[in-house]
Design a protein that fits this description.
The protein has 11 helices and 13 strands. α7 runs parallel beside α8. The strands form 4 sheets. The protein has a 5-stranded mixed sheet with strand order 1-7-6-4-5, sandwiched between helices. The chain has a 4-stranded mixed sheet with strand order 8-13-12-11, sandwiched between helices. A two-stranded antiparallel sheet has the order 2-3. The radius of gyration is 19 Å and the shape is globular. Helices cover 35% and strands 22% of the residues. By secondary structure, it is α/β, with parallel strands linked by helices. The chain has a single domain, classed as 3-Layer(aba) Sandwich (Peroxisomal Thiolase, Chain A, domain 1), CATH 3.40.47. The site of coenzyme A has 20 residues, from α2, α6, α7 and β12.
Length: 362
Amino acid sequence: MDRAAITGWGHCVPPSVITNDDLASVMDTSDEWITSRSGIKERRISHVENSDMAVVAGSRALAAAGLEPDDIDFLIVATCTGDRQIPSTACLVQAKLGTTKAAAVDINAGCTGFVYGLNIANGVIAAGTARRVLLIGVEKISAYLDFDERSTAVLFGDGAGAVVLEPALGDEGIRSMTVGSDGTLADALTATGAGTEYIGRPEPLRIVMDGREIFRNAVVQMGEAALRAVKDADLDLADVDLLIPHQANIRIIDSIVRRLDLDESKVFTNLHRYGNTSAASIPIALSEALDEGRIAPGSVVLLVAFGAGLTWGATAIRWGDRVEPLGQSDAELPPTELTGLELLIDEQRKKKAEDRARASVL
Ligand SMILES: CC(C)(COP(=O)(O)OP(=O)(O)OC[C@H]1O[C@@H](n2cnc3c(N)ncnc32)[C@H](O)[C@@H]1OP(=O)(O)O)[C@@H](O)C(=O)NCCC(=O)NCCS
């Protein structure tokens, strides 16, 4: 049975930045509070849709793998903030990217979506039902932020990351995979205002979270999943060359690193620049880690994630010989003159108007 290996990678973050000080100018918060509670300094706000960011990240991953869109036979988009409810964002991406021979599907496992996607990609490659898979994690989570909900509004940002998976040629590839969920904790991290449950109800579109419950569960489940993934790969923690955790909160990451007794030099973080980009966080971090030379031929890379559901997952990957992209894509997002703050204020204004209109007819 073939095992899947990552042969291409890329990411796309929108250009408009919003800093903690920007947020403090429109809501009751401060750079000091956000930095000390989360480690986040700034995040990106998208002026385009999820599918547009996904296409750029996907094009870059295809170029890095030396492939054309038509080489892909299975396209997976991990997202919980897709462009539309129907059809899938994956189908919109397929049309824009021109992967005409690919089956396309979305998966929603919250911030764990990318790791779940790796599991599915590994499975279809092992089963022989697909040879080349494009997996994209993407979120336009700014659309779900609400300035009145300051404990969540400061934590998230937009972006996309992508990988290409193909059958491994040697002993590289996905060496273990563990995923889990606990739906009894669904309300600990949820979005109101979207979905059939909310028809006829006045709740606005926004993320609602029990921060402490999430924090507690994230530390336990990510720690356990990481340990299981290492064990199932017949490795020791000392064999891990780079841990790429879901980029939600530096205090969660520090707790896990302490629990695993890993050297900080073996941990990749970029959340200070992007915040929590949900399903996009690990593929953006993986792509940046490769760009920065943090992954060497044969490196053992441990990915671990946690998210709404609740869901969690981890995978140990042995990298192949190639850590350089085979090619570069010239795909870019359209430019924008708008700052992150201007985009967010505009989005909030439209959402408040919609909320008022909705409440008035109920
Ligand atoms: C959200 C989180 C940062 C809050 O940190 P915390 O230390 O638990 O803070 P608390 O919820 O106890 O709030 C402490 C105070 O800060 C206030 N506060 C909340 N958000 C604030 C903000 N953005 N700015 C300033 N103050 C804020 C609260 O109102 C509270 O004030 P009070 O004591 O007067 O009531 C933290 O719980 C967390 O990171 N949880 C995990 C969230 C996450 O990663 N979710 C995604 C997982 S995929």
